[in-house]
Amino acid sequence: MHGKQSWFVGLMMIFSMGFLQSLTAQENWASWSHTVPLKGYEGHRFKVEAQVKAEVIDDSASARLWARVDKISGYGYFDNMWKKPIRSKDWKTYSIEGKVDSNARQLAFGALLELNGRYSYDNVTVSVEQEKNKWVTIYSTDFERDMEGWNAGINMNGTKSGINDAFKASIQTDPVSNSKVLLVEATNVPNYGDNKKAGKFADVNGIKLYYEIYGEGAPLVVLHGNGGSISSAASHYPELIKKYKVIAIDSRSQGKSTDTDKPLTYDQMASDVNALLEQLHIDSAFIWGQSDGAILCLQLAMDYPKKVKRVVAYAPNIQPDSSAIFGWAVTAVNRVIKISTDKHEVKLYEMMRDYPNIPFEKLRTIKAPCLIMGGDRDVIRPEHLVKMFQYIPNSQLCILPGSTHGGAWEKREMFLQILNDFFTKPFTMPTTEDWFKE
Asked: Where would a tag sit more exposed on the chain, N or C end, judged by fewer CB atoms within 10 A?
């Protein structure tokens, strides 16, 4: 189960996906930000505007603007131009418009950069509509006097999110406009998920399945969540590559992998992974799956047991209803299906609505050691995770404290330690019952 619509709609947005997944280690994006107070502007419309150009090196590289209303408690309006990436080499004006929430404290806004390129920003302004069609500027900068309060990161509760040493910011004179601009340059950013050297396509089951391979050692298949891609685990690959031969896969209809007209099912996607492993002549592999990828882990272990050494399944579900998933999440999935005009998005969400439908008894057929994981504040009900753990013969259970559906990123170091211990140390199932045996 994948989850959000801002956070829930698909780990797809930078703040929901990239920002979450990189809380402890940024790999392929960065941000610079500024803030302005909003007290007295509650209920008013605001606009963040800037001139931007992007000289991208990677095809999927981009620049964006972003804006977030910070409330006295929590957060309000947010936009990061997720569906409007900037890749134009020419100076153009871009803007974000929103409404100031009640109890607003400040507006955080700035530049968002992804992957390798040269990104330029100039003439940044923040305006508020005081009366209908009467706007007043409450902040502006042309960077003629240095960065003036602009800092690396997303300016969010002291987190280091958005701070990435692979991106270098400076004030430079632009050769076209002949004015000083904020220039951010990146040339050595890992490009997981869009690596022309490592990426390949395999013909499997009537589609082209995209994958990338890194490192040496025991094979480790990495499977992303619904709406994600290989890049979803970008912050984890540098550590994993040190120990394993990482085979990162874009599931069918996601990332760079193609699709057919048929509905998506998890057993079909598991068949895709098995076919790829056959083509790669890999007898068996460790599998780490997140969310939908965790479902695929279990499906692989049931349907293709010889291909699976051990499984780390973070937040899987084997039923698509409120017995497994909190009701607010079920409601959110149905809402997306109802209101979305994106046919591809609807197809992905329909799969979550209708599948999987795996009887608990079938879990007893799994022979590979499995580690069932989740967050204590997950979208998957903890009792569902516990029940899966109890039905799998060779299993361990781990609920990460203070963690959500994205706990593998929120507690990255802890998660990687647990994953590595499970894959590399002897599998055991100790029982306290032994303490009481005579």
From this structure: C
Q: What is the DSSP letter of 305?
A: G
**Residue 406, by phi and psi: left (phi above 0), alpha (psi -120 to 50) or beta?**
alpha
Average pLDDT over residues 147-155: 93
Task: Enumerate residues 6+ apart whose C-beta is below 8 A from 146.
Answer: 171
Residue 66, CA distances (Å) to 47, 217, 236, 331 in order: 11, 40, 25, 28
| Percent of the chain residues topping a pLDDT of 90 | 86
- pLDDT above 60 for 145: yes
Domains present along the chain, CATH in parentheses: 27-186 (2.60.120), 199-428 (3.40.50.1820)
- In which residue are the tokens 């009900």 written? 381
- Chain-centroid distance, C-alpha 236: 12
Kindly provide the residue ranges of all beta strands, DSSP E only, lying in 24-161, ordered along the sequence: 29-37, 45-56, 62-71, 75-79, 92-99, 104-114, 117-131, 134-141, 151-152
pLDDT in tens, 386-433: 999 999 999 999 999 999 999 999 999 999 999 999 999 999 999 999
Q: State the pTM of this model.
A: 0.74
Select from 212, 205, 167, 143 the least CA-distant residue to 61.
167
